[in-house]
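Design request, tokens follow.
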């Protein structure tokens, strides 16, 4: 990925969000992008192939998910084909989700635990992170037995590591640096 690609993807994502927001369909476009992701990965090779014409590529996209997505979403993918930017769709989707989350005051937190959380603990953690961030927080919980114990949370740029493995690592670094 080139730096230019990230900038271009950001511009496309912003434009898509503005179009979706103007018709109050930003939620649906977000759903479309998420639900289409597996299918788009399968079609990507054909869509990026120079062996197919632009019209054939657009027809393939239309046939593949015409009745499943908003017309605006389909037209957006046609635009990407026209502008030869289809390969940027994963970056565009990531940028769109970031814009969407910011505007909807939502945040996603990656939570790493050494064993599964019960419903009450999950609910308490969600409430604490929501209070901390001032946003509605969606938890993405991943079990990592090698944490040994405790929890590690990544919320945007903020990271809290209270896992036993993290504590041991910090202790080791402290000893190595003579502190």
């Amino acid at each position: 990925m080139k730096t230019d690609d990230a900038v271009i993807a950001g511009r496309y994502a912003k434009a898509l969000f503005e179009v979706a927001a103007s018709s109050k369909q930003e939620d649906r476009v977000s759903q479309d992008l998420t639900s289409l992701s597996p299918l788009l990965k399968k079609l990507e090779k054909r869509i990026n192939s120079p062996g197919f014409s632009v019209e054939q590529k657009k027809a393939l996209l239309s046939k593949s998910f015409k009745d499943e997505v908003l017309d605006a979403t389909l037209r957006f993918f046609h635009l990407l084909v026209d502008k030869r930017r289809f390969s940027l769709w994963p970056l565009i989707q990531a940028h769109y989700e970031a814009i969407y989350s910011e505007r909807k005051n939502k945040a996603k937190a990656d939570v790493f635990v050494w064993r599964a959380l019960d419903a009450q603990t999950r609910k308490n953690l969600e409430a604490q992170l929501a209070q901390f961030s001032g946003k509605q927080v969606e938890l993405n919980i991943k079990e990592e037995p090698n944490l040994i114990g405790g929890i590690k949370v990544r919320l945007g740029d903020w990271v809290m590591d209270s896992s036993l493995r993290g504590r041991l690592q910090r202790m080791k670094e402290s000893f190595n640096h003579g502190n």
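Comment from the thread starter after seeing the answer: thanks! Residues 3-102 form a domain with the Peroxidase; domain 1 fold (CATH 1.10.520.20).
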